[in-house]
């Protein structure tokens, strides 16, 4: 599904990724584990086209993403949940979910919203509420819903449990666990696996932008 081969990525003059490789097989969940600053966010932003590798190759379902412009990657079925949530504060919950659907030209927005509200029914109750009025944990749920909107093939989740109260962390873990066994593949970037060790099929450990350990999750 997603294959990263010896990716090198710099931000300005700083080399962040130094030959990182990983694979996310179809219908699997993979944990990308590393300390803050290890390069996890850089990898996800590179997959989404915000950054460009100077060396290496990133492919999605066999297609080299170098040939796919940034604005077209979500339309491939890739959903991205950034660590900082990235919501538009003045828009409602539903409008924030719909923005990437509109941007990709998805026609069946009603069906997709019905799917999202089926997975996250609590959001249906607050669909008209502006994002700036939500708690940090509620904003995480909306960010996950937005990623699910376009992420029909692959989800990239950056620190989904960071800064979230324990009850909402458990809720997020339940939602992500409920995606197992479907058509989606999921890459979860985290500082540790406290919330998702039971979720992932494999772990990739990143240190200073390179692979440290790749092992099957227990």
Query: Helical proportion?
Result: 25-40%
- Summing up helix and strand content along with how strands pair, one would put the structural category as alpha/beta
The CATH superfamily name is P-loop containing nucleotide triphosphate hydrolases
Topology, number of strands: 10
Report the major sheet: 6 strands, mixed
Strand content: 25-35%
Q: Treating each run of at least 4 consecutive H or I residues as one helix, how many helices?
A: 6
Order of helices and strands: EEEHEEEHHHHEHEEE
Mean pLDDT figure:
89
Low-pLDDT parts are none
Query: CATH class, anyone?
Result: Alpha Beta
**Rg from Cα:** 17 Å
Molecular shape? globular
Keywords: Amino-acid transport, ATP-binding, Cell membrane, Membrane, Nucleotide-binding, Transport
InterPro entries: AAA+_ATPase, ABC_transporter-like_ATP-bd, ABC_transporter-like_CS, BCAA_Transport_ATP-bd_LivF, P-loop_NTPase
Protein name: Amino acid/amide ABC transporter ATP-binding protein 2 (HAAT family)
GO molecular function, one term: ATP hydrolysis activity
Description:
The protein has 218 residues and is α/β, with parallel strands linked by helices. The protein has a single domain (2-216), classed as P-loop containing nucleotide triphosphate hydrolases (Rossmann fold, 3-Layer(aba) Sandwich), CATH 3.40.50.300. Helix content is 29%, strand content 28%. It has six helices and ten strands, in the order βββαβββααααβαβββ. The protein has helices at residues 40-47, 93-104, 109-119, 121-125, 136-150, 166-177; strands spanning 2-11, 14-24, 29-33, 55-60, 63-64, 78-81, 154-158, 185-190, 202-207, 210-216. A six-stranded mixed sheet has the order 6-7-8-3-9-10, with helices on both faces. The protein has a four-stranded antiparallel sheet with strand order 2-1-4-5, with helices on one face. Helix 2 (93-104) packs parallel to helix 5 (136-150). It starts with a strand and ends with a strand. The model has no long low-confidence stretch (mean pLDDT 89). Pfam families: ABC_tran. Keywords: Amino-acid transport, ATP-binding, Cell membrane, Membrane, Nucleotide-binding, Transport. Belongs to the ABC transporter superfamily. This is Amino acid/amide ABC transporter ATP-binding protein 2 (HAAT family). One of its GO terms (molecular function) is branched-chain amino acid transmembrane transporter activity.
